[in-house]
Amino acid sequence: MTVSGEVSRPIRLYIVAGEASGDALGARLIAAMRRLSDRPVEVHGIGGPLMQEEGLTSLFPMQELAVMGLVEILPHARRLLRRLDEAAADIRNVRPDAIVTIDAPGFNRRLVDRVRIRSIPRIHYVAPTVWAWRPGRALKFKARFDRLLALLPFEPPYFEKVGLDCRFVGHSVLESGADKGDGARFRAEHGVSAETKLLCLLPGSRRGEVSRLLPAFAEAVHLLGQRRPGLRVAIPVAPGVASLVEEATANWPSPPILVRGERAKYDCMAGCDAALAASGTVALELALARAPTVIAYRLPAITYAIVKALVRVDYVHLLNIMAGREIVPECIQSDCVPDRLAAELDRLMGQTGRDQTEALAPYLAQLWPVGGELPSEAAARAVLELI
Q: The domain at 11-171+368-384 falls in which architecture?
């Protein structure tokens, strides 16, 4: 099915993504728009390698926007303000048919404020978590955007009640391929027998995350190895932190398997007996891969104290939030310690882990858009409607 319209010129789309997950969302959105539209789609904006494969020439490196935390952003403020001005000027020059900003709400709200061309439809992809903290953000988004694309089925009412058009389009992780990994292939490629316990470690995609989490993860591996002799460890490494992980693990008594690339990462997830991961989208990938999981996270003390005072939910794993109970163990801040991590992982390397994956299945099913189409296609339709 296609969306008809003027065929005399391409649709000119301006997309801004701030980190790897947004880059994936943007790339799938561009591809879906090209499948659904009768007109060619020309893309401008800011993105990473996946969006660049879809024809984007990024205005500047996307990594400059991947700054997280209330305190951590301060040293980068001057550079970010300069990049805001550059992006706004580029939008005014391109005069796109629509602006799609993806996640990175702090940067993107300020960006659309600078554009000041209200005739261009403005769509924000990934609803801010007003159900978790700072509900007043719903009004701020209503003032700036014409439509919001939500990944979660329960999100639209939070925005519709303030008059902002919000569409549930499904969670893009469903298109990641995380459910299609080949665990037997991974074990065969790396000489890991079917009887050997394999632990998948995912310490994050940002240098700050890795620096805070990997020391505790390393000690947890040591403790788990005492309980599970012959334990093997594999670490899928994000490109931006590969050298940091290599350096940090170089002297481990049993060198881990360092895994590069999406296919190998999903094979690793499919082949592992348990996983220890930084909180984030990767936790959903592991659920899709049916990998029994413990999630962990640490923030700088000041940032954590601020966030703790503001957050209104009891859990950080999305599927735990949807379930209203802790199906996936959460080791956050003071609980992110080696003995707790090792004990939880040891418990999951058996029937408890299988029970976890079964309990998560109905909540994963709720992430599909109504009608069963791909999330990227539901998002593309929502964008094309406004053009």
A: 3-Layer(aba) Sandwich (3.40)
Instruction: Write down the pTM of the prediction.
Output: 0.85
Q: What is the pLDDT of residue 76?
A: 59
Q: In the prediction, which pLDDT does 19 show?
A: 82
Exposure b/e, 288-326, CB count within 10 A at least 16 = b: bbbbbbbbbbbbeeeebeeeeeeeeeebbbbbbbbbeee
| Distance (Å) of CA 107 to CA 139, 165, 385 | 17, 21, 25
Kind of pairing between the strands at 122-125 and 98-102 = parallel
pLDDT in tens, 77-120: 778 888 899 999 999 999 999 999 998 888 898 999 999 888 99
Q: Are strands 41-46 and 11-17 parallel, antiparallel or unpaired?
A: parallel
CA distances in angstroms from 275 to 13, 146, 296, 346, listed in the order given: 39, 40, 11, 11
Domains 11-171+368-384 and 178-365 alike in fold: yes
Rounded CA separation 386/354 (Å): 45
